[in-house]
């Protein structure tokens, strides 16, 4: 390494505490050129010497006629700007509307965390993300906390990729400090009702005058579609389904001999799917539609399958969730009263059956009907591949989500064991089968 006194323009400064700070100071001529300025090189001697020599090479090239500007200081990109860029990006535009709404909510929280968006992105390090993780898990539910951290990780990953591909504003960040942070995933929700619980919800909805909630329960359970997709579906999505086997047509056909279904595009997966309607769902929908068909004096341009009021317009998601909560709570109270009535009649079997129903209805949410409908089909022996065809998942996706949508419970285990025993008995009874002692 050259000695410090042999390196032009390198100076050292002794501070009061004994620390030595190095500086690179170009001449007035070099400063007036606009290409070079005084640079503070820090306290590390080796790094200061190396940087001073690199700057001197730039001076030599400049003097030889090749104009080289000193590297400009990278512009500070703050968190608010990064969020704005992401919201304006194609990556964000390609998300489903429901996902955009969720991400926007998480980004709003993260902007508040990042000093109202003024925090420089380059200042976000692993320790800062760890502090955020500890805070959200302390103050939020596991689901909400994990969602906020996942959006931060996604945002910083997008920043890196956008910088590499487009090369704008230099490097925004060099690495993702949230990539290695352990995000505790919430336990999969396993709440479900059984087919015999559904009449309690439907009757309670009708008693409260919430016909839209009754229709929603029927569709949610029998079609296994997401709430947002069902709320966005209009009556024009109902259409005949013709490509059926004779057996399927016999089971699904209505009084007119036709099989009707709902055709929709799933908002989350963009999968186009047609779901045949079971007779009870078709009858409920036709009764609902008959009361809202356009007449000569008042035409309804768009009539949604699930709509509140006489206008036939869409039911807002929050309104629907609130009304479902009221229906479920009312159904639970009615079941509890029925339990006491059964006990008064000394009908213990009925009382225990109703107690199990009350347990399932307590805390049930509309999203649980999707899982419940899939479990209902599973309990009846419908193969996973056919359940996937109804719900809209690919077969591979179905295999991955079995633990979430099809919780392995005692009833399923008993059905599986009984099926194995019965099929083994059938095999043992085949003609010519040797019977062992």
Automatic annotation (TrEMBL):
InterPro entries: CB, DNA_brk_join_enz, Integrase-like_cat_sf, Integrase_recombinase_N, Phage_Integrase
GO molecular function, one term: DNA binding
Domain of life: Bacteria
Keyword DNA-binding recorded: yes
GO biological process, one term: DNA recombination
Keywords in alphabetical order: DNA integration, DNA recombination, DNA-binding
Ranges where the Core-binding (CB) domain occurs: 77-160
Recorded family membership: Belongs to the 'phage' integrase family.
Protein name: Core-binding (CB) domain-containing protein
Species per Swiss-Prot/TrEMBL record: Stakelama pacifica
Lineage of the species this protein comes from: Bacteria, Pseudomonadati, Pseudomonadota, Alphaproteobacteria, Sphingomonadales
């Amino acid at each position: 390494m050259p000695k410090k006194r042999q390196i032009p323009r390198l100076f050292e400064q002794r501070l009061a505490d004994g620390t030595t700070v190095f500086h690179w100071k170009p001449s007035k001529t070099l400063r007036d050129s606009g290409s070079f300025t005084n640079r503070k090189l820090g306290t590390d001697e080796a790094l200061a010497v190396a940087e001073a020599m690199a700057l001197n090479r730039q001076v030599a090239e400049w003097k030889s006629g090749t104009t080289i500007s000193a590297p400009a200081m990278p512009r500070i990109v703050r968190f608010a700007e990064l969020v704005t860029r992401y919201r304006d990006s194609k990556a964000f535009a390609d998300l489903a509307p429901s996902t955009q709404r969720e991400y926007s909510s998480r980004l709003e929280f993260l902007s508040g965390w990042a000093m109202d968006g003024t925090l420089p992105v380059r200042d976000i390090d692993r320790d800062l993300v760890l502090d955020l993780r500890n805070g959200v898990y302390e103050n939020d539910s596991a689901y909400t906390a994990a969602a906020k951290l996942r959006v931060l990780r996604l945002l910083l990953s997008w920043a890196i990729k956008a910088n590499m591909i487009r090369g704008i504003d230099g490097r925004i960040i060099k690495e993702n400090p949230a990539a290695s942070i352990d995000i505790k995933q919430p336990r999969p929700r396993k709440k479900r009702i059984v087919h015999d619980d559904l009449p309690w919800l439907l009757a309670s909805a009708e008693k409260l005058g919430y016909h839209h909630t009754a229709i929603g329960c029927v569709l949610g359970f029998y079609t296994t579609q997401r709430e947002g997709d069902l709320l966005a579906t209009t009556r024009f999505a109902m259409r005949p389904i013709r490509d059926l086997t004779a057996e399927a047509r016999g089971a699904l056909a209505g009084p007119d001999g036709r099989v009707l279904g709902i055709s929709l595009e799933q908002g989350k997966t963009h999968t186009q799917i047609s779901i045949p309607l079971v007779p009870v769902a078709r009858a409920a929908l036709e009764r609902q539609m008959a009361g809202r068909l356009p007449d000569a004096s008042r035409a309804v341009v768009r009539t949604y399958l699930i709509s509140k009021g006489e206008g036939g317009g869409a039911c807002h998601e929050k309104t629907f969730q609130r009304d479902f909560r009221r229906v479920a709570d009312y159904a639970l109270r009615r079941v509890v009263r029925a339990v006491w009535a059964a006990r008064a009649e000394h009908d213990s079997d009925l009382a225990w059956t109703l107690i199990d129903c009350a347990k399932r209805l307590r805390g049930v949410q509309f999203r649980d009907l999707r899982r419940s409908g899939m479990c209902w089909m599973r309990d009846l022996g419908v193969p996973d591949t056919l359940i996937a065809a109804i719900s809209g998942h690919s077969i591979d996706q179905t295999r991955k989500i079995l633990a979430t949508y099809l919780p392995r419970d005692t009833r399923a285990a008993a059905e599986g064991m009984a099926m194995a025993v019965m099929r083994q008995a059938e095999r043992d009874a085949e003609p010519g089968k040797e019977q062992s002692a």
